[in-house]
């Protein structure tokens, strides 16, 4: 069995070819797609966060709205760039959204990805400390966030408060119990996956990672997942971790599918996410259901993960993306043993 959700990057463009031509379109359609996915039996609705772009950027209002409109589906991010975040304010936002969703939040966080602007986090008021890189700063913000989620009091109360205080030091409110175990780290390398395991975070491994061995993407990703699980076991955590991978997967069921995605098999690609880091980008899958099933059986990382996030072309509209999700749930998941 495998949990299956969707991951939307939330693009919009004023192009007449797009079904999402404004930020309002994307936000409202994201809610509608989550509702539709829940009705279809999918397990998760996840959203990417990008700043300075025509994409989803402020996740918590959206997560809260989805939580209010659904009742079962997991609601998450993949991922929030922690270089931009005030971890204490984020505790309050995340706590409120999780309480509205009745404990269904699954927050993916990370040090971030290549940006639309140069050092965008500086415009948000953040700067690495002496000897820190921006990645170090993102991980530091993440560690503060994780520590605050434990709910321990740390702030000295005013002796003459406006409202009565509970005894002792004060914590941030609202705090959602159990959210600490539903934090995921988006790891782009084996080392950061091991770091995440030591801190007790679940693992999100997407379609991009550092090219560390020159092997096929899915083989490197599977090795990353195994390294993460070994580090988790060594750390002695009491619960079982969760691991997700993201893939573009399209079952070619009708003429629309073939027109959009029937141009042949994709391959892994090599690129650079910065001047020093060679990265490998995982291939997508698009084929008739029987052929697609055989292709997916060879993907070692999908086999290793307990959660699969289907990246969806959100600009094609809610109805078509619901069809994409339903096609995988109906024509692929049973044959793969995921249902």
Q: What tags apply to this protein structure?
A:
339 residues; three-stranded antiparallel beta sheet; alpha/beta; 10 helices
Structural class of the secondary elements? alpha/beta
- Residues in β-strands, percent: 15-25%
H/E element string?
EHEHEHEHEHEEHEEHEEEHHEH
Average pLDDT, all residues:
96
Which spans have pLDDT < 50 for at least 5 consecutive residues? none
* Total of DSSP H or I helical runs spanning 4+ residues: 10
Total beta strands: 13
| Radius of gyration, in angstroms, nearest whole number | 20 Å
Which word captures the global form? globular
Q: Please outline the major beta sheet.
A: 8 strands, parallel, barrel
How many angstroms separate the termini? 6 Å
Strand order of the largest sheet: 1-2-3-4-5-6-8-13
Can you put this structure into words, describing what you see?
It is a single chain. Strands 1-2-3-4-5-6-8-13 form an 8-stranded parallel beta barrel, surrounded by 7 helices. It has 10 helices and 13 strands. The termini are close together. The longest helix is centred in the middle third of the chain and has 19 residues, at about 215-235. By secondary structure, it is α/β, with parallel strands linked by helices.
